[in-house]
Amino acid sequence: MVLTARPVSLFSSRCPSLLTSFSRPNPWRAAFHSHAARRPGFMRNGTGFDGAHVSKRLLTTQREKVKVLAVLYDGGKHAEEVPGLLGTTENELGLRKWLEDQGHTLVTTSDKDGENSTFDRELVDAEVIITTPFHPGYLTAERLAKAKKLKLAVTAGIGSDHVDLNAANKTNGGITVAEVTGSNVVSVAEHVIMTILVLVRNFVPAHEMIEAGRWDVAEAAKNEFDLEGKVVGTVAVGRIGERVLRRLKAFDCKELLYYDYQPLSPEKEKEIGCRRVHDLEEMLGQCDVVTINCPLHEKTRGLFNKDLIAKMKPGSWLVNTARGAIVVKEDVAEALKSGHLRGYGGDVWFPQPAPADHPLRTAKNPFGGGNAMVPHVSGTSLDAQKRYADGVKSILQSYLSGKFDYRPEDLIVHRGDYATKAYGLREAATGKS
Which residues are listed as membrane-spanning (predicted)? Predict the structure, then answer.
């Protein structure tokens, strides 16, 4: 679906690593960071971020139109019924009138795959691209090379792994990549807790039994457990991971563990009642439940393969609301089938949308349950959509005004370099965290 606006002229302006070392080798030592990892500080002054000079010419409103391309998912009748479904092609993050009133052009599409897609055709002369983790338009190096006018790539939400960040740094003098940090961390954390409970309490098979008109208490209860008394660990403890641990505190788990390159403060650890484990394999071997809350980058892609899954406690549950490509889908499906994993749940897939034959759509444990997969919805509740729509508008305003006064925490790459530790592991990391 494609929605286009009448091109009207107004103004435009141009926007002009994690490096860790470890003493001992370990193949799993990838220095994890949460979706919304802590960002390095920026200086604001009269000349812009980090003292970089912004000329008076750039700070002057220019009467040139800007073409904005938005790649979103179709909402159909649902978007008509609920205007709060802002992340759809129909409701367009609430941006169309705001942009057109200023003379800019907004092109919206859900057609994003293949060389002849609307995404590919319209990207060629777009100055700004907006896409979303829930229906990502993948900005590969090849696509970026064709986007000669592109200056700003905005993620409506959090998680910008759909962009080749290295290529963005080198394209058109450095494309700024920004996301709406913090916009849906609560939404995702709540979804993690829900998924853990759905798996541990064997909810899905029990509910399906009722829908089918059946009643067998023994069948439902034979694979049902309490969360209390279990050991739960999170891979990364940034904004999402920390919120997950805080919410788990109320369940009286036996122990709450975390693995991250950067520890929480002793005060936070005491307040939450959690403990850092320096070795990922060691943590996995202790946990009844593991939740993945790190971003996707070079060192986390395919991390949870058959070798690492084998290090997990037999009969444990794995939850992934981070990114689908962090796990090897075939290996997860096999571990579930064998019973080594009692359950797998989450909302992230690779690619997205997930093909009909994706193995994690139907993978089950030996009891015929253990699957709590849903579409990519954890971070796109109606409340979250309002927050990230507002955030996208704020980022666009910073760009279109020529002020470039972005929130520092929203910047992923800027001025040809990484602006965050959440992405861009630039060299191999080995050893202990």
Answer: none
